[in-house]
Recover the amino acids of this structure.
């Protein structure tokens, strides 16, 4: 048996976090917000939603939640769902839109069944499960099952949040389903559909009848510096051990560190939390009692590198080729036709590659009219060369 007195007093990471940072865990993670007290209210948007559900308005409108990556779309719908639950409403969450209408309606039935089973005995629950797993079934048949289930759920409206729709083929599969069947239920349902601004624009241009059914457009805009600071403070506060005797609301970050962090974040809470979380992890490993500006710079470099490495891993061969070619061509002001020529492909072939690179945040699109569209690489060219093996 070990005599505990012989064991040297090695401070574990958790002890160190508690003793020096006044934190019970590292709360700075990029996970979507789920708790109202950690949420920096996007006041107007939330107020509108709360007013609608509170007044029990008879005719409900559905919402399109639009925002660039990491600005807080999922967090926004999570908080709306929490508020709706506080009014006794039932919420259904679909994490992403698959590339098939049949799969989508089956996912919708599965998510609805999951919610229904949380608060009632669902008669014929097994039959629903069969429809969820059938290999080949007409979407209309699954839709009828879904309607049957929705009709049993009280009170109305039921909230259905559909997240992660930055996948246009997916949307073009589900739009007809909505137009032909699902919108029939809209008087009893508030839909939320989250999407990137670029995808929204394309949806609006090509599927106007569909987007028109979401009259409330919620723009999730970049945070101001004050909002970012409040976000950081709230996350840290959720893990504080001693809330009374705090050195600073942002401890262990010093003010120079915070200022640099805000610059890097550029309005995007996800960037801020990734960098700040990484800085805490690193300083914990090194047993540093404060986090300064230099440590934020180092953390930002690490985050940038690992984000790029992860994005690169998920690209197909042709997507990588396209990105490398764009860098060879100078990285900016690139026209579609010029890129297609350089890659020896048609314009139609390379558009999906460009869409994927855009959705991953590696390139961006400029220009208003389709004929004027130009592309620019925003990923670090040197890092891409490193990843592509210096071709
Ligand atoms: N209003 C807010 N208050 C507090 N934290 C927030 C808020 N909005 C976003 N965040 C935080 O920012 C990060 C990114 O948020 P979220 O995942 O909701 O973004 P998103 O727009 O859904 O991103 P993606 O496009 O990648 O799905 C999360 O860590 C989340 O906790
Ligand atoms: Mg999201």
């Amino acid at each position: 048996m070990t005599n505990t007195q012989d064991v040297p007093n090695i401070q574990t990471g958790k002890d160190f976090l508690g003793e020096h940072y006044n934190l019970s865990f590292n709360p700075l993670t990029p996970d979507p917000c789920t708790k109202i007290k950690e949420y920096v209210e996007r006041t107007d948007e939330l107020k509108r939603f709360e007013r609608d559900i509170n007044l029990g308005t008879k005719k409900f409108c559905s919402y399109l939640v639009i925002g660039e990556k990491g600005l807080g779309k999922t967090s926004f719908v999570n908080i709306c769902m929490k508020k709706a639950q506080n009014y006794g409403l039932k919420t259904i969450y679909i994490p992403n839109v698959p590339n098939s209408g049949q799969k989508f309606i089956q996912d919708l039935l599965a998510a609805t069944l999951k919610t229904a089973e949380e608060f009632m005995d669902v008669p014929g629950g097994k039959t629903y499960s069969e429809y969820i797993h059938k290999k080949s079934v007409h979407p209309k048949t699954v839709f009828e099952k879904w309607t049957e289930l929705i009709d049993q759920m009280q009170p109305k409206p039921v909230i259905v949040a559909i997240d992660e729709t930055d996948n246009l083929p997916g949307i073009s599969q589900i739009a007809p389903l909505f137009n032909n069947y699902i919108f029939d239920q809209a008087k009893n349902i508030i839909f939320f559909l989250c999407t990137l601004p670029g995808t929204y624009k394309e949806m609006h241009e090509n599927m106007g009848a569909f987007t028109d059914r979401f009259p409330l457009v919620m723009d999730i805009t970049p945070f101001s510096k004050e909002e970012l600071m409040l976000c950081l403070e709230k996350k840290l506060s959720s893990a504080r051990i001693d809330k009374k005797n705090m050195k600073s609301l942002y401890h262990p970050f010093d003010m120079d560190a915070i200022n640099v962090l805000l610059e890097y974040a550029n309005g995007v809470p996800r960037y801020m939390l990734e960098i700040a979380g990484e800085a805490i992890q690193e300083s914990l490993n090194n047993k540093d009692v404060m986090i300064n500006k230099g440590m934020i710079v180092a953390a930002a470099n690490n985050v940038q590198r690992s984000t790029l490495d992860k994005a690169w891993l998920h690209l197909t061969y042709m997507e990588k080729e396209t990105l490398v070619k764009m860098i060879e061509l100078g990285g900016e002001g690139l026209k579609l036709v010029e890129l297609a020529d350089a890659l020896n492909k048609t314009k139609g072939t390379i558009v999906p590659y460009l869409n994927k690179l855009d959705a991953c945040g590696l390139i961006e699109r400029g220009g208003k009219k389709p004929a004027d569209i130009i592309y620019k690489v925003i990923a670090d060219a040197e890092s891409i060369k490193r990843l592509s093996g210096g071709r």
Summary: The chain has a mean pLDDT of 90. The domain at 314-387 is CATH 1.10.10.10 (Arc Repressor Mutant, subunit A). The two ends are 59 Å apart (CA to CA).
